[in-house]
Design a protein that fits this description.
With 191 residues, the protein is mostly helical. The protein is 75% helix and 0% strand. The protein has helices at residues 3-35, 38-44, 49-55, 59-73, 83-93, 97-110, 118-140, 150-170, 177-188.
Length: 191
């Protein structure tokens, strides 16, 4: 096999993996992680289950790829998040309910013992808490107007973002997710 043929095969394989990850996102959004079978995902992309296993040898490896792909969409270089950018992220999420639903379903399922995404979410929330504390420190210094430290408020900020997503998914006509988040940010700055 020539170098060019090898590169072409690698590109095709990467494109196929990306297609599988997108299909897995869809199937998980529809059925939840536990209800999403490898056979259903394979069918969605026109592969046999064996063909799918060539790219992702286990359902767990596919799940991690799905979660990593979702995180890439929201990636901002470290230290560059600001409260106004967080509000923009909430607005962006309101335009992609399927992704929010998939993330929320996986998050909810991951709290059960032995779930393959539990470690991923535990580590992710540790990183997100640190990042949100830095956002708050940049905005307010070592103390918010309430007197709380950024480290104390960071989990609350994340809880509001995630909690609003659940409420919005259940009743999008009644919950203005971006507006409610902006209201919360206003509360952070009040004495």
């Amino acid at each position: 096999m020539s170098y060019r043929d090898g590169m072409s095969a690698r590109v095709r394989s990467e494109e196929r993996r990306a297609e599988i990850v997108r299909a897995a996102l869809e199937v998980i959004a529809e059925r939840g992680y536990r209800g999403a079978s490898m056979a259903a995902i394979a069918e969605r992309v026109g592969l046999t289950q064996q063909g799918l296993l060539h790219h992702f040898p286990t359902k767990d490896t596919l799940l991690v790829a799905v979660l990593e792909e979702r995180d890439k969409w929201d990636a901002v270089p470290a230290g560059t998040w600001r409260l106004d950018l967080l509000a923009s992220l909430v607005e962006y999420n309101a335009m992609r309910p399927g992704i929010v639903q998939t993330f929320s379903a996986l998050l909810g399922e991951s709290v059960t013992e032995g779930h393959p995404a539990r470690e991923y979410f535990t580590e992710r929330y540790g990183r997100v808490r640190e990042s949100m504390a830095q956002v708050l420190r940049t905005e307010y210094g070592d103390r918010l107007p309430s007197g709380l430290t950024p480290e104390r408020v960071a989990p609350l900020l994340i809880a509001v973002m995630d909690g609003l997503q659940y409420q919005w998914l259940l009743d999008p006509e009644s919950v203005d997710m971006p507006g409610a988040f902006r209201d919360f940010v206003t509360l952070l700055g009040e004495d």
